[in-house]
What does this fold into?
Amino acid sequence: MHWLHRARLWLDITRSQGIARRYFVVNGFDGALTMLGLIMGFAISGASDLSVVLNACLGAAIALGVSGVSSAYVSEAAERRKALAELEAAMGKELGDSAHGHAARWVPLLIALVNGAAPLFISLFILLPLWLARAGVALPWLPLHTALGCAVVAVFLLGVFLGRVSGQHWLRSGLQTLFIALLTMGLVLLLE
It folds into this structure.
């Protein structure tokens, strides 16, 4: 069986699709707002050295990714072990080599990867204009402003995704998360 089919089976039998989706949105949102706050802080402080901005933001992105992977793995592995032990007790036999046993071992890793990849990749998307500017690519706006635009777009798209999941109109959901991004920017501006 192809590994994607196995992963889908394991997620189905543990009913973990919703958990993975929530982790993607929650930690993706954390990544986007963290980058937004960092870049806003650099912008209002007049930072002009893109290497410093990139290194600080990349350090935060890596930390968010590692935190996401490790925290989700530890908590999900404990939950899956508990659920498997309860199922084995109810059935009166060990299920280590069954699909439930495989799911108990692999689903925590799958969820952890989703939880860690979401903030890392969203952060890298937001930082893309800074890398391009440092590489000499001409941008239509200042690099920090372009990165802020990417952060706002990322937050809006997470809202659109939530709207699709919940059945709410995509624009309304996108505007709700956009408001949160603008509120974050406003709060950071108070530091000035």
